[in-house]
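seq as requested:
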Amino acid sequence: MNASAAGALDRLLASPAGGGPERGRGETLALMARAGSDAAVRAWLGDLARLLHRDAPPELAEYERLALLGACAGFLERTLSPYAPEHVEIIPPLLDEIRAVYGQLQALGGGYDRDEFRYRAFHYGLHKACYLDWRLYLSNTCY
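struct tokens:
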């Protein structure tokens, strides 16, 4: 991971992702910190950064990186690999969905809770990776 990507990740992890332990945010912050400090996750984030839009507004770029961080945390937890084609296939649609929701919120005037969006972007990435693991497990078990 290059120095600017590492710095962006450090700033991302330092930014608040919620206002306390309500709705599991305390656990999410701890998971984000653990994932962000893991060498494998940091390397994956650096490699997957090529999928981010270079011209995204800073706020959207932050949400995209949080979604990637969540997916990488899920990959680590479920022993999946972002280098396997059947695993990394979830990343482009994940980022497209984050961009679409962000676009919809901007079209409505941008009056939304940014901390809530950070929290949900991370969790959505994590959810996508865990769902992928479940889907792969079922395909191997049932077929």
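The radius of gyration is 15 Å.
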